[in-house]
Design goal:
The structure is a single chain. By secondary structure, this protein is mainly α. It has one domain (2-76). The chain contains 3 helices and no strands. Helix 1 (2-37) packs antiparallel against helix 2. The radius of gyration is 17 Å and the shape is flat. It starts with a helix and ends with a helix.
């Protein structure tokens, strides 16, 4: 698999693809951790965690949305 990525994108392209996948994984884990700590979902907490684990785009989108929301709140101060 690494060889096919290297053959398709070259050295610099495969480096960027690898870094992008690494950052996506880090943001996914951070999003799942943030959703675990967030208590506003109440009895649906287990369902939210299941969706976050099965659909990796959801926690990444959630963490980006939280960062934008915190930036807005800081601008109001």
């Amino acid at each position: 698999m690494i060889e096919s990525v290297y053959n398709n994108f070259g050295f610099v392209g495969s480096l960027f693809v690898s870094l992008a996948l690494f950052f996506f994984f880090i943001f996914w884990m951070a999003g799942v951790a943030g959703l675990c700590e967030n208590r506003k979902y109440g009895r649906f907490q287990s369902l939210v965690l299941l969706v976050a684990i099965l659909i990796p785009v959801y926690p990444v989108g959630w963490i980006v949305w939280e960062m934008i929301d915190q930036k807005r709140q800081l601008k109001k101060l």
